[in-house]
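Workshop exercise sheet. Pairs work together: one partner reads the sequence aloud, the other fills in the structure field after running the prediction. Swap roles for the next sheet.
Pair: D.N. / O.F.
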Amino acid sequence: MSNVMIVGVGGQGTLLASRIIGNVAIKAGYDVKVSEVHGMSQRGGSVVTYVKYDEKVYSPLIFEGEADYLLAFEELEAYRWLSYLKKGGKLIVNTQQMDPMPVVIGSEKYPENIMDKIKGLVCDVTSLDALKGAMEAGTVKAVNTVLIGSFAKRSNVDKEIWLEVIKETVPPKFLDINLKAFEIGYNS
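Structure field:
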């Protein structure tokens, strides 16, 4: 069973990432269940998606301590959802920091040293500057595809299937940028 939890902030492309991961798992022959929790996605709020795949999956939900992978699009979201990662699970986190509304309005401060706290709790952490990778690929909107590339490298699914699904899912005018972003993440 692979339980993948994708967490981020509205507008980062978490929903497209879950669709790609789900379609890859289907193409690889797995039964797949996907569940999306949008929150305040249109206002920069937390967005959570569950993708489960195995020979047979009965529920799309992932509970605390069950995620094999936590794919986090932002540091604070990684820290917020860390309890869902199972012991021995893998965290892939974008080192980008996006201020939540309480920080934006000045009533709170963004927590310091989040990555140090995370690394003190999780052994298998891959942290990468997916925003920098996306900009190298040609657009800040490709952060999701950089992270997908990093996840794909660690998954048990052949790279060619990932590339095939990206080609089928991403609109043609953005395909070259997304393929480049995938490679940047895959090679990170």
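Discussion prompt: The first strand starts at residue 2 and ends at 9. What would you look at next?
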